[in-house]
Every structure is written in C-alpha cells, then in structure tokens.
Design brief:
The chain has one domain: Nucleotidyltransferase, domain 5 (2-Layer Sandwich). Helix content is 45%, strand content 25%. It is built from 4 helices and 5 strands. It has a 5-stranded mixed β-sheet with strand order 3-2-1-4-5, with helices on both faces. Strand 4, helix 2 (71-87) and strand 5 form a beta-alpha-beta unit. Helix 3 crosses helix 4 (114-136). The chain is globular, with a radius of gyration of 14 Å. The two termini are 14 Å apart. Belongs to the YqgF HJR family. It comes from Perspicuibacillus lycopersici. InterPro entries: RNaseH-like_sf, YqgF, YqgF/RNaseH-like_dom, YqgF/RNaseH-like_dom_sf. This is Putative pre-16S rRNA nuclease.
Amino acid sequence: MRVLGLDVGSKTIGVAVSDELGWTAQGVKTIVIDEERNQFGISEIEAIVKEYGVEKVVVGLPKNMNGTIGPRGEASQKFAKMLEKKVQLPVILWDERLSTVAAERVLLEADISRKKRKKVIDKMAAVMILQGFLDSQM
C-alpha cells in the first residue's frame, strides 16, 4: 500500500510517496501553490494519487514547540479536510515539528548548494514527514 506525504506551505507543497511495501519514502516533486488565490495544486495531487496507486495521505501538521496549533497548523488542518473530500482517501495529520530543520541538515551534510537546497527543501521535508509516519507503523 502506497502512502503519499505532503509538506504544505503557503507557497509550495513538498510531495513524497512510499514504496509499495510502505517502508521507505522518496521525494517526488514540489508543487507551486498560491494560498491567497485558493490554488492548492489539488489536480496535481490527484494525478499523483492515481499514478502511484496511493491509498492513504499524510499531511504534515506544523505544531508549535509547546504542542499548540498556530496559524500554519490551522491552514494544514483546513487543507487536509479539503483534500480528503477531493481524493476520497484517508488523510492523516502528522506532527512535523522540526521536519524542515532535519531536511536542511541532511542537505547541508550532503554539501548541497544553497540554490539547490531551496529547490528541494520542501520535497525533502515531505520525505521526512512521510518516513516518520511509516516508521511509526512498524
């Protein structure tokens, strides 16, 4: 069963997908969105769901360090509800505290240039979110 992982921001959505066994997460792409115009890349996500045969979606939930939900977390919750209606699949919110920090660290350790890091950081954060979820299921 494949699982889709999403790191939802205000300008982009990082996308990752699991292997068929649900063991590992691989980055797929970064979708450019426009939150102010309510353009969330839903049709692109639906195409990825079909292409990979996804059966479940994990959306990163950015919590504050004290565990409370702030404006970005509320936006992710709203997005998750909208997505669940569109794709007709279970959508799980997953605590993503520090996922972008972890992704940045991995890319720095791999000696990726700042310019290239900017292009892949959201996709890498989606991988971190999805891998955390997959690891919790084992």
